[in-house]
Specification:
Length: 221
């Protein structure tokens, strides 16, 4: 039987860093902690990543590549509403997989200027992608006419919801909306008032098909 190839040290460092950052938080984990967890010397880790910022930058590059694939990839012959729903399912699952990035976003942006600049750049790019998706909604007759300022505010609310969803779960843990799938529900609650009757029917059909939690059948967009 052919054995699975060993994970390279560089990738193992990133996977271990993600696991430890998710479990304890960025501020509570040093490079030495990561090296010890893997069972390598700190010098070996330092050979691959000189600083904690280098590690987080590498993780962020990995995240950005994965998320870009989610935005661009698309199943054939599906409506823009179905595409957006599948994207939201992926986004919520993605948040849990890299939860430290959202939970510690304030500390990360304050401590690491390079990452802060990348986050802002990515946010602007995602804004353009979201606007393109909403344009598809209007083209297909799924969205009512909306004033540009209101549409921009709505998109901003959606980005805030995605960015700080996990943080609100930590702070407001006794409230509703802490179970998985709640982020997707909340975003549709923001969008739904702007849908036409045709759009609402399409959204209802999409929810009935996929639900609010990512399943194996939604792996491919």
């Amino acid at each position: 039987m052919e054995k699975n190839p060993k994970i390279k040290t560089k990738e193992k460092i990133l996977l271990t860093a993600i696991e430890q950052y998710n479990k304890i938080g960025v501020q509570g984990i040093t490079s030495r902690h990561i090296a010890s967890e893997i069972g390598i010397s700190h010098g070996n880790l330092d050979y691959h990543y000189k600083t904690k910022e280098d590690i987080i930058l590498a993780i962020y590059d990995k995240m950005r590549e994965e998320m870009s694939d989610y935005f661009v990839a698309r199943k054939e012959n599906i409506s823009p509403i179905e595409h957006v729903h599948l994207l939201l399912l992926q986004l919520e699952e993605f948040q849990y997989r890299y939860r430290f990035m959202n939970l510690d976003v304030l500390e990360i942006t304050r401590a690491y200027p390079k990452i802060s600049a990348l986050l802002q750049k990515t946010s602007e790019f995602r804004k353009l992608q979201m606007d393109s998706l909403f344009q598809e909604f209007r083209k297909e007759g799924y969205m009512i006419p909306v004033e540009p300022e209101i549409l921009e505010q709505t998109q901003h609310i959606i980005r805030i919801t995605i960015t700080f969803w996990l943080s609100q779960r930590e702070v407001l843990g006794t409230e509703k909306f802490t179970e998985k799938g709640s982020m997707v529900r909340s975003i549709w609650a923001v969008i739904r008032p702007y849908l036409t009757e045709t759009g609402k029917k399409e959204q209802g059909k999409t929810i009935a098909k996929y639900g609010y939690i990512k399943q194996e059948s939604t792996n491919e967009l």
